[in-house]
Amino acid sequence: MHAFDYDEVFKIDLSDVSVEVLDEDPYAFADAHAGFLGVSGNEPLLSVGSSTVSYAFDPTGDSQTVHFVSQGQPNDMEFRTLSGDWFFASLTAEESYLVIAEPYLLEVYRLGVSS
After folding, report:
1. 49-60: per-residue pLDDT in tens?
2. Domain locations in the chain?
């Protein structure tokens, strides 16, 4: 999985839960890769299997409320935002992780769903 902002491209490896900053131009990267999130027009995965995620991004807020359902259990979490430039919350395609990011923070949560 990749995420990027106006300055950097991040490679997110969920197998060992690591993030690497790539030496890539974000605009060239966006043109060459379809599977990225951040300041792109791509839509996050809001529903995968029995899991769902929803939020309403408020660029002026100090935090964003993310609502998600995993294994039939509804949950709310507050994600601190340092920038109002962009924000996303997305499930991964295999329904194992919830990824939440903004320009200065990236968090990955393992969901209690067997893949």
Report:
1. 999 999 999 999
2. 2-110
Torsion sign (Cα): 63, 49, 32, 108: positive
Distance CA 74, CA 43 (A): 22
Q: What is the pTM of this model?
A: 0.77
CA distance 39 to 82: 15
Residues in a beta bridge with 92: none
Among 38, 77, 84, residue whose Cα is nearest residue 61:
84
What is the 8-class DSSP label of residue 30? H
Contacts of 111 (CB under 8 A, 6+ apart): 51, 70, 71, 91, 95, 96, 97, 98
